[in-house]
Amino acid sequence: MSDEKSLNFIEEIISQDLAAGKYKSILTRFPPEPNGYLHIGHAKSISLNFGLAEKFGGATNLRFDDTNPVTEDTEYVESIKADLKWLGFNWIKECYASDYFDQLYAFAVQLIEKGLAYVDDSTAEEIAQQKGTPTVPGTGNAYRNRSIQENLELFAAMKAGQFGDGEKVLRAKIDLASPNMHMRDPLLYRIKKVHHHRTGDKWCIYPMYDFAHGQSDSIENITHSICTLEFIPHRALYDWCIEQLGIFPSKQYEFARLNMTYTVMSKRKLLQLVQEGHVQGWDDPRMPTISGMRRRGYTAESIRDFCDRIGIAKRENYIDLSLLEFCVREHLNKIAQRRMVVTDPIKLVITNYDQDEELLHSENNPEDPNGGTRPVPFSKELWIQKDDFMEEPTKKYFRLGPGLSVRLKSAYIIECEGFDKDDAGNVTTVYAKYFPESKSGSDTSGIHVKGTLHWVSAKHAIPVELNEYDRLFNVEDPSNAEGDFKSYVNPHSLHSVTLAWGEPALLTDALESRFQFLRKGYFYQDINSSKDKLVFNRTVTLKDTWAKEQKK
Ligand code: ATP
Ligand code: MG
Q: What distance in angstroms lies between residue 72's CA and the mean position of ligand 2's atoms?
């Protein structure tokens, strides 16, 4: 983020706080719940939290918000850490809300002692009923008048496992008539006799989000606790708990969550896609997860760039998926190695080429002056794209057809002399002569052509497999479309080209290389690729073809 840019509203608050001497330095946190893999929405929150700390010379904690033992797992903890590192962010401390369970319990006891919390035996339905509605005040119940002593004993008994799940809860005693429903005696603790991925079976009562989050912020001395807009109504409770406990005054600020077209952005929904086999896993390259994007070939730089460009807003909106793809293309154009791969091939025979073969050189990246070149073998028989040849060329067809000339990329100019067809009428072989003096780099032929084709020498060609991806959903907003969001999964979101011919450099290229296959798109080697069977994922097309296709 450049310094000249005007400050966004959170940066504005932070710079005022620092100027007023409220804090010596700022501390933010990224608080994922380890119940799924990180997605692009989390990347937004990450880049915001870590970005603010970077900008203002502060630091960021990674805090696992692991207060809901039912859905959480260490697999997710590990994946979250790996994704953060890959994105290029470093946290100063790795924290777990579960490490604060003792402290949080002590805080709850303090509230009880102050007459600000009570044990309620009502069922969830009764509590909901007694809460009233935004226009009708709630009604209390007899449990609300329990003595401090009784509450202390019952809460201790809850902790000791003397009651079953749902038999009792601990509630804050605030205001049953508050216009903010979250202040109508919110739940602080519930009984859940389940194993926790870190604390094992030590606890059978677990704090609710509203009692864990703010207090965890405070325990860590977080100065600016940034969350998404749906937490605005929780802010009063966040402040209330901190004030009543007299602990470090962390402050909550809200921004609009990232929503993106043609995707869903909730771990719960992404989990369904995985569990029901709509995709092959959390890291399926079609998934909006960081691991899926990484496997597809998106770069961390382009994801960070995207997050910076969209900025932060105070109102919900939708960001077009094509903006993310634009950022990916921009970066890959600068760094990708150019290679030639022919899909849907036909044979091209150079009739007057009498040498056995020769090594030509082709530049790796015209955008990078230091990108160097690679050797590309050329011989009498080549593979070219079937659709680069037309039996009866139309007027503006600048590719190959009887009598037409083109340049073969980094090689020679050729002129088509004829072609063969099989019994079914398909063109099988194209014949052309080449002009030896037209060699790229030392062309003295004086011949001008409009089209340049990519090609691969047939005897040097290596088979490769390509996975071409399209939008995972075929509607812009699957979450809000009628019916089950999964019914909008695009059945053509994966197209596998099982045989394409690639140039031999691909065999020796580094695994992590980014490629532009000329005239095809940007590609990245899949994790299941091997020297015996090279598999590439199409990261993104060369141009935004989606908008055009939609209009067809
Ligand atoms: P999900 O609904 O996908 O499970 P969540 O908000 O429950 O999302 P958390 O693990 O609790 O997921 O989120 C960690 C942090 O990331 C939170 O601070 C949350 O506000 C933020 N976050 C999650 N989704 C988005 C999003 N789409 N845009 C911006 N921030 C997000
Ligand atoms: Mg959450």
A: 11
Would the CATH topology of 25-255 be identical to that of 267-337+464-550?
no
Q: Which of 40, 42, 84, 266 to mutate to test the pocket of ligand 1 (most atoms within 8 A of CB)?
A: 42
Q: How many CA atoms lie within 13 A of 153 on its CB side?
A: 5
Q: Which residue has the tokens 């509590």?
A: 127
Residue 95 has a pLDDT of: 98
Catalytic residue numbers, as ranges: 33, 257, 267
Residue 486: other Cβ atoms inside 10 A: 14
Q: Which two tokens stand for residue 313?
A: 């807003």
How confident is the model over 34-74, as pLDDT tens digits? 999 999 999 999 999 999 999 999 999 999 999 998 887 88
pTM above 0.85, yes or no: yes
* Pairing of the two strands 258-260 and 251-255: unpaired
314 C-alpha to ligand 1 centroid (Å): 16
Q: Which ligand is nearest to the CA of 317?
A: 1
- Residue 209, burial from CB neighbour count under 10 angstroms (0-12, 13-18, 19+): middle
Homologous superfamily of 341-454 in CATH? Ribosomal Protein L25; Chain P (2.40.240.10)
Atom of ligand 1 nearest to the CA of 44: 29
Q: Are 329 and 542 in contact (CB under 8 A)?
A: yes
Q: What is the DSSP secondary structure assignment for residue 400, as one 8-state letter?
A: B
- Taking a C-beta distance cutoff of 8 angstroms, is the pair 172, 185 a contact? yes
Other beta carbons less than 10 A from residue 311's beta carbon:
12
CATH superfamily, domain 267-337+464-550, is Glutamyl-trna Synthetase; Domain 2 (1.10.1160.10)
Domain 25-255 has CATH 3.30.70.260: no
Pocket of ligand 1 (CB under 6 A): 31-33, 41-42, 44-45, 65, 227-228, 257-258, 265-267
- Residue spans of the domains in the chain: they are 25-255, 267-337+464-550, 341-454
**In angstroms, what is the span from residue 254 Cα to ligand 1's centroid?**
12
Mutate to test the pocket of ligand 1, among 226, 228, 253, 308 (most ligand atoms within 8 A of CB): 228
Please report the pLDDT score of residue 65 as a whole number: 96
